[in-house]
Design a protein that fits this description.
Layout: H1 9-17, H2 21-43, H3 46-65, H4 75-97, H5 120-138, H6 142-153, H7 158-165, H8 169-189
C-alpha cells in the first residue's frame, strides 16, 4: 500500500519532477528533522532556523521542478549544501545590514560590530594606514586636500562642499576624483599599502 517509503531518494525526486507531489512529501518527512537540527546547530536562533529551513525546501522544489537537479550525490547532502549556502548568505546579509533597533527589547544594542575591540595587530595596522593616508593627503594640492577633508572627516555632501568652497558641485566632484587618483598614484609610487 505505501510502497514509496522503500523507494530511493532519487526515485522520489524523479516522481516529484514528473508531477507526483506525494513523492516530495515523503522526501520532506525523511529529512525534515535532520535538516532542521543541522541548521539550528549552526545559527542557534529558532526564527532564523525556520526561515532558512523553509527557504532550503523552496529552493529544492524550484530546482527539481525546473529539471536542474543532478544526481551526482546523495539527496540529503544536496539539501545540506543548499542550507549551508543560505546560512552563509544570511550571515553576510546580517553583517552588511548590522542594524540595531532600540524598539526591540530582546536586542542588546551593545552587541554590535562597531563596539567590538580590534586585536592589537589590527589596531596597529589601522593606525599605520591612517598615518600613511594623512602623509599622502599632505602631498596633495590644497583644493584636493580640502575636498577630501570635508567629505571624509566632516562628512559633508558634495553640495555642501560646493557651497562652502564657492565652486560648482561638478568642480567639487572633479577635485575629489583627482584627489583619489593622486593618492593612489602616490601610494603606489611610495610602496604604501592602504588596506588591511
Amino acid at each position: 500500500m505505501n510502497t514509496r517509503i522503500s523507494r530511493t531518494d532519487e526515485a522520489l525526486v524523479t516522481l516529484y519532477a514528473n508531477g507526483e507531489n506525494e513523492a516530495f512529501d515523503e522526501l520532506l518527512n525523511r529529512y525534515r528533522d535532520r535538516l532542521y537540527y543541522y541548521i539550528y546547530y549552526i545559527v542557534r536562533n529558532v526564527e532564523q532556523t525556520e526561515d532558512i529551513f523553509q527557504e532550503t525546501f523552496i529552493k529544492a522544489i524550484i530546482t527539481i521542478r525546473q529539471g536542474r537537479y543532478n544526481e551526482n550525490g546523495k539527496f540529503s547532502a544536496w539539501l545540506r549544501r543548499i542550507a549551508h549556502n543560505l546560512i552563509i548568505d544570511s550571515y553576510r546579509q546580517d553583517k552588511q545590514e548590522n542594524l540595531v533597533s532600540c524598539d526591540e527589547p530582546d536586542i542588546n544594542i551593545l552587541n554590535t560590530i562597531q563596539l567590538a575591540e580590534d586585536t592589537i595587530e589590527t589596531a596597529m595596522v589601522s593606525q599605520q594606514i591612517l598615518d600613511d593616508v594623512r602623509r599622502l593627503m599632505n602631498a596633495l594640492p590644497d583644493e584636493q586636500r580640502e575636498v577630501l577633508q570635508m567629505r571624509f572627516y566632516q562628512d559633508l555632501s558634495f553640495k555642501e562642499i560646493a557651497e562652502q568652497t564657492g565652486v560648482s558641485i561638478n568642480t567639487s566632484l572633479g577635485r575629489m576624483r583627482y584627489a583619489i587618483l593622486n593618492i593612489r598614484r602616490l601610494a603606489s609610487k611610495n610602496g604604501v599599502e592602504l588596506t588591511l
